[in-house]
Amino acid sequence: MAVWTPKFITFDCYGTLINFDMAGAARRCYTDRVGADIMPAFITDFARFRLDEVLGAWKPYYDIVSSALQRTCRKWQVEWQPQDSDFIYADCKTWTAHPDVPEGLRKIAPSIPLVLLTNSMNDLIPHHVPRLGAPIHMTITAEETGAYKPAMRGFEYMLNKLECGPDEILHVSSSLRYDLMTAHDLGIKNKVFVNRGHEPGCPAYGYTEINDISELPAVVGL
């Protein structure tokens, strides 16, 4: 990608900026009920069921997590208890930013407004924005848009609220499935894939690949 200054840089938050440790939360919750030999597969299914849950009608993220957890437990014949969902949702509030995030964002924020488009809730995201270490111009949650990514509705809502077109933003995410495929389909040509190793890339979707946020300022000439 040639050096170009977007009107806004828009970000996925969890996984891209905040260390999305749902796998760790599941391990901590089920360490006494799920054997070490099946724990990786248990965690993988939990992630897949969460994606399936967000593809349906909007509901609070607690319910997304709880339903996916119950489906995972049924598949693996593990006892689910209501407090398990409470534990994992509470664990979400403790997550911190990836170490590379604050400095990288601080280099950009004075020149280009930073925007979050997140699958979070209005009561959950305030725990994480201060940990990013840089001014955030606008935060848009799935609760506000009434839709979870990868649905297009959140992106459309964001562009309307920012009063800009898809050609005026740079969208940054560590996920093809949740973000960059949808951004591509909406005509957002300027995209960055942060390869944090939790999801494979696909260059056919047309993005610049970086290893972490410390490399992002150079993408926009800062």
Automatic annotation (TrEMBL):
Gene3D superfamilies: 1.10.150.750, HAD superfamily/HAD-like. InterPro entries: 2-HAD, HAD-like_sf, HAD-SF_hydro_IA, HAD_sf, S-2-haloacid_dehalogenase. Pfam families: Hydrolase. It comes from the Bacteria. Keywords: Hydrolase, Metal-binding. NCBIfam families: HAD-SF-IA-v2, HAD_type_II. PANTHER family: HALOACID DEHALOGENASE, TYPE II (AFU_ORTHOLOGUE AFUA_2G07750)-RELATED, HYDROLASE, HALOACID DELAHOGENASE-RELATED. This is Haloacid dehalogenase type II.
